[in-house]
RNA sequence: GGUGAGAUGCCUGAGUGGCCGAAAGGAACGGUUUGCUAAACCGUCGUACGGGUCAAACUGUACCGAGGGUUCGAAUCCCUCUCUCACCGCCA
């Protein structure tokens, strides 16, 4: 969430940026400020009254020790009066603090100055593109036919075991999946990221920390029996590794990577969006998370973009990088680059990675801070990106590298997959 | 799942009603000494939210797992919960 002090000092900027993000309830900004004013007044009143109580209590102790029972009793009566005043102040203070938090939760992160104006995906800006655009042979097929032809994935079986959107990978399909995960993780750790295997279920505090709650409650599977949520991305458990911690400045940047399955309810999706591997309820992803000094977070963002770009290039896939417009960005992000890979047989671009700088928005909720050179704690900036989401990469690999007599495996992947082609 | 013991600052660990935001030791950081290393010595060494200030100094409140309660006053007493450890049961 945004820092109240920042909102107070930069109100005009905040309003302007919220508008860029297509945020309509601008009155929330004033609500936050007035609630914070009220909170300060009440806090002062409470603290001053409580201070009197504390002083009196000490005096009572001394009077008792001195054997002055009467003096002690009269003091007690005075304290009782003070405490009666305290009660309603405290009640209101708690209410105000709760409302303030709720109001702050309503405000999305502010887009960075380089974020393009716009409302829909059409307004996203293509930053650059690359990779070899394939020329498919006459009988080229979409991936859901290839997976069936080569016996790589059984969608119907998954439907029977669980439901739609839970495919069963088998044979070379399962092995390719495993090879990709291994390759991605090695690539990340070779570049200085520390590998983690986090829990796949998180509690409500963690989901709140990264912004899934309360904003996107319906996106996650909720295990009500124990109050846990299935992770929609490794971002949630991995970023929460540093919840409520003060990091040494010398330890920054913190670079983490993790493979996890991801679970998303994806309510309301339909049609060609969900065909084959395009959109699933369970999928695999290798994620990058960095916690960095605020001064360097945008350099880090560019580094992460290049890191992911090289990985896609090594898979010999055609891609483009988009800078998302204000209206298409996620609630918590300040600047996001999406990577899309061209699905040749479908004739459409599929998002395979999203790399974002959240600045202090997540870390303010998480209370992930570091001590600066003056000894003051400051929020670190958090960033994350996929490297990569597996199903769409798999789909594009199959479609783009298909030939009349099989599917070619990119050279970078062959050591992991163990052969140069499928079929 | 059952029984028992616990949860204190970066770590170990004292503290059973007021003098405790908290002893002591260690680690860390700064300094002195030193041919270098080591040792020794001195100092610093929690967080949040307020007040105050140009900024500091200074100052108030809260926090000893979490939440409630008793009391003029709680790390200390009571209740609930969570977690940790040990043993038993079960089990990949």
From TrEMBL:
<protein>
    <recommendedName>
        <fullName>Serine--tRNA ligase</fullName>
        <ecNumber>6.1.1.11</ecNumber>
    </recommendedName>
</protein>
<dbReference type="InterPro" id="IPR045864">
    <property type="entry name" value="aa-tRNA-synth_II/BPL/LPL"/>
</dbReference>
<keyword id="KW-0547">Nucleotide-binding</keyword>
<dbReference type="InterPro" id="IPR006195">
    <property type="entry name" value="aa-tRNA-synth_II"/>
</dbReference>
<keyword id="KW-0030">Aminoacyl-tRNA synthetase</keyword>
<feature type="domain" description="Aminoacyl-transfer RNA synthetases class-II family profile">
    <location>
        <begin position="175"/>
        <end position="410"/>
    </location>
</feature>
<keyword id="KW-0648">Protein biosynthesis</keyword>
<dbReference type="GO" id="GO:0005737">
    <property type="term" value="C:cytoplasm"/>
</dbReference>
<dbReference type="InterPro" id="IPR042103">
    <property type="entry name" value="SerRS_1_N_sf"/>
</dbReference>
<feature type="binding site">
    <location>
        <begin position="264"/>
        <end position="266"/>
    </location>
    <ligand>
        <name>ATP</name>
    </ligand>
</feature>
<keyword id="KW-0436">Ligase</keyword>
<feature type="binding site">
    <location>
        <position position="384"/>
    </location>
    <ligand>
        <name>L-serine</name>
    </ligand>
</feature>
<dbReference type="InterPro" id="IPR015866">
    <property type="entry name" value="Ser-tRNA-synth_1_N"/>
</dbReference>
<dbReference type="InterPro" id="IPR002317">
    <property type="entry name" value="Ser-tRNA-ligase_type_1"/>
</dbReference>
<dbReference type="InterPro" id="IPR033729">
    <property type="entry name" value="SerRS_core"/>
</dbReference>
<feature type="binding site">
    <location>
        <position position="264"/>
    </location>
    <ligand>
        <name>L-serine</name>
    </ligand>
</feature>
<dbReference type="GO" id="GO:0004828">
    <property type="term" value="F:serine-tRNA ligase activity"/>
</dbReference>
<keyword id="KW-0963">Cytoplasm</keyword>
<dbReference type="GO" id="GO:0005524">
    <property type="term" value="F:ATP binding"/>
</dbReference>
<dbReference type="InterPro" id="IPR010978">
    <property type="entry name" value="tRNA-bd_arm"/>
</dbReference>
<dbReference type="InterPro" id="IPR002314">
    <property type="entry name" value="aa-tRNA-synt_IIb"/>
</dbReference>
<dbReference type="Pfam" id="PF02403">
    <property type="entry name" value="Seryl_tRNA_N"/>
</dbReference>
<feature type="binding site">
    <location>
        <position position="287"/>
    </location>
    <ligand>
        <name>L-serine</name>
    </ligand>
</feature>
<comment type="similarity">
    <text>Belongs to the class-II aminoacyl-tRNA synthetase family. Type-1 seryl-tRNA synthetase subfamily.</text>
</comment>
<feature type="binding site">
    <location>
        <begin position="351"/>
        <end position="354"/>
    </location>
    <ligand>
        <name>ATP</name>
    </ligand>
</feature>
<dbReference type="GO" id="GO:0006434">
    <property type="term" value="P:seryl-tRNA aminoacylation"/>
</dbReference>
<comment type="pathway">
    <text>Aminoacyl-tRNA biosynthesis; selenocysteinyl-tRNA(Sec) biosynthesis; L-seryl-tRNA(Sec) from L-serine and tRNA(Sec): step 1/1.</text>
</comment>
<feature type="binding site">
    <location>
        <position position="233"/>
    </location>
    <ligand>
        <name>L-serine</name>
    </ligand>
</feature>
<keyword id="KW-0067">ATP-binding</keyword>
<dbReference type="Pfam" id="PF00587">
    <property type="entry name" value="tRNA-synt_2b"/>
</dbReference>
């Amino acid at each position: 969430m945004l820092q109240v002090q920042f909102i107070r000092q930069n109100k005009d900027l905040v309003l302007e940026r919220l508008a860029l993000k297509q945020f309509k309830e601008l009155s929330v900004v004033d609500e936050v400020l007035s609630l914070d004013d009220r909170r300060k007044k009440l806090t002062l009143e409470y603290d001053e009254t409580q201070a009197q109580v504390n002083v009196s209590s000490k005096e009572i102790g001394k009077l008792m020790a001195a054997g002055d029972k009467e003096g002690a009793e009269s003091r007690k009566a005075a304290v009782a009066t003070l405490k009666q005043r305290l009660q309603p102040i405290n009640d209101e203070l708690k209410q105000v603090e709760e409302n303030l938090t709720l109001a702050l939760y309503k405000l999305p992160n502010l887009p960075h100055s380089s974020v393009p104006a716009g409302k829909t995906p059409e307004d996203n800006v293509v930053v650059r593109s690359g990779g070899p655009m394939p020329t498919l042979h006459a009988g080229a097929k979409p991936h859901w036919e290839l997976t069936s032809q080569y016996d790589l994935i059984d969608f119907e079986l998954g439907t029977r075991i669980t439901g739609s959107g839970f495919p069963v990978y088998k044979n070379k399909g399962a092995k390719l999946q495993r090879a990709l995960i291994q390759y991605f993780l090695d690539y990340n750790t070779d570049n200085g990221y520390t590998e983690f295997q986090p829990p796949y279920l998180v509690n409500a505090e963690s989901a709140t920390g990264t912004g899934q709650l309360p904003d996107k409650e319906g996106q996650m599977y909720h295990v009500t029996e124990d109050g846990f949520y299935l992770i929609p991305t490794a971002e949630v458990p991995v970023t929460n590794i540093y919840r409520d911690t003060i990091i040494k400045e010398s330890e920054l940047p913190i670079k983490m990577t993790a493979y996890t399955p991801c679970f998303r309810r994806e309510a309301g999706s339909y049609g060609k969006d969900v065909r084959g591997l395009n959109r699933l309820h369970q999928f695999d992803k290798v994620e990058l998370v960095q916690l960095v000094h605020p001064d360097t977070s945008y350099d880090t963002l560019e580094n992460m973009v290049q890191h992911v770009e090289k990985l896609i290039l090594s898979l010999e896939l055609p891609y483009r990088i988009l800078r998302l417009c204000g209206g298409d960005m996620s609630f918590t992000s300040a600047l996001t680059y999406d990577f899309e890979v061209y699905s040749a047989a479908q004739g459409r671009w599929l998002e395979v990675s999203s790399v974002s700088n959240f600045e202090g928005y997540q870390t303010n909720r998480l209370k992930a801070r570091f001590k600066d050179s003056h000894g003051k704690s400051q929020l670190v900036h958090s960033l994350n990106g996929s490297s990569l989401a597996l199903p769409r990469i798999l789909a594009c690999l199959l479609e783009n590298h298909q030939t009349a007599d099989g599917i070619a495996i990119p050279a970078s992947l062959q050591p992991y997959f163990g052969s140069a082609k499928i079929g």
